[in-house]
Design brief:
Two copies of one chain form a homodimer. Chain A is mainly alpha-helical and about 210 residues long. Chain A has ten helices and no strands. Chain A has helices spanning about 5-30, 35-40, 45-50, 55-80, 85-100, 105-110, 120, 135-145, 155-175, 190-205. Chain A is globular. The termini of chain A are far apart. Chain A binds a DNA duplex (30 and 30 nucleotides) through helix 1 and helix 3.
DNA sequence: GCGCTGACTTAACACTGTTAGGTTTTTCAG
DNA sequence: CTGAAAAACCTAACAGTGTTAAGTCAGCGC
């Protein structure tokens, strides 16, 4: 006995090797530019072998996205329950920017590419803050609102969350897309992000002088 | 004589027909999903005929981007010289959001796709606000700073412009990418954009109560 | 020993952007 | 009016893509 176990373990290992090779090439060359043949070559298999583990190139990509979504949610969870929700919100922002700057290619896959099915594939973890980074953000925004420190018009956690997310995403995304565009003299992303976050929060605050 | 003129006119006409067909299909199906054969078929030509007018599919795409960049700059120019620079800034924001919502596919091509050469192709209009929408924005931010109404740390027009641009871009881009994502209950983009813009300006303002 | 399962390969398909080489029409100098 | 050149366009093909149908072949339970 035990040989059956070995078989499934070996299967899982080659599956993992495919994922690793695909990630490496996707990150280095981009998704469009890496071919199934290149991935297969990387692990010394035939292209068709991949299809015994993933239904298509797209499904392979989705699996990688799934892993990264979990990684981001884990990074948020590590922030934990900081008492002041506004402080927690800005920590979330920092973690988000860190993630984006450390893994720009993954960031592009998660937030700058349209895959109508990746969210459907993760439907079961929706709303669970340990798996769903957006839920963690929204809950924190709700806590911020609950302190009563925001102006009256900012009473919708969903909308506040979308504003916070959008401002950081915009900065990161533009920076990635227009990185080596000579037209724009980019400032340091982390610094601009921090200033933008502070301004946004101050602008929503009831008493903008006080923090 | 004049037949030579007719020839060049006819050439320009087919070139335009190619552009129109390409735009139509790019917008409807997306760039990757539309083939040169489909574009050719649309205007009842052979695929190779296109190559007598554009060197490649990519060059065809770049030409379309060029046209749209000019259209956006023209929309900004139509705002004109509103006296109050803060008022002008928020008008720019409105025009930007309008452009994005009216032409989401074009928006994706211009600001959500990486083409390292489109900016090089437009190098000659760089800094000219009649052709360069970013320059128009930056100049307006400089005017806002010059009023002395912003806090001391917001003295860099480039950085302020990037913050303003980023916040709106983020909202639009996320909305396009995650449009039919069931996880996020999107609010009305124009309303959220307006609130975000107001908050950001108020947060940068020296006297946040006053406008 | 024997059939069977399952990992993997070979060969091919339909499709993509692109090109070499031809055909046909139009232009224009002599 | 003629003949050469040019331009617009087409036919056929190439190399490369994701993907699949039809194998091969090792190792397992009976």
């Amino acid at each position: 006995m035990g040989s059956r176990e070995r078989r499934t373990r070996e299967r899982a290992e080659t599956r993992q090797r495919i994922l690793d090779a695909a990630r490496k090439l996707f990150v280095r060359k981009g998704v469009e530019a890496t071919t199934m043949r290149a991935i297969a070559n990387e692990i010394e298999y035939t292209p068709t072998a991949i299809y015994h583990h993933f239904a298509s190139k797209h499904e392979l990509l989705l699996e990688l996205c799934n892993i990264d979504f979990r990684a981001l949610a884990a990074a948020f969870l590590r922030i934990g329950r900081v008492d002041d929700p506004i402080e927690r919100l800005s920590r979330i922002g920092e973690a988000y920017v860190d993630f984006a700057l450390e893994h720009p290619m993954q960031y592009q896959l998660l937030f700058m590419t349209r895959h109508p099915d990746v969210s459907r594939a993760r439907e079961h973890v929706r709303g669970d803050p340990t798996e769903d980074a957006y839920a963690f953000l929204r809950d924190t925004c709700a806590d911020v609102i609950a302190t009563g420190r925001l102006r009256g018009e900012f009473g919708d956690p969903e909308e506040v969350a979308q504003m916070a997310w959008a401002s950081l995403h915009g900065l990161i995304a533009l920076h990635i897309i227009k990185e080596d565009d000579p037209w724009i003299e980019w400032r340091d992303v982390r610094r601009t992000a921090a200033r933008m976050g502070e301004s946004l929060i101050r602008g929503m605050h009831r008493m903008p002088g006080v923090e």
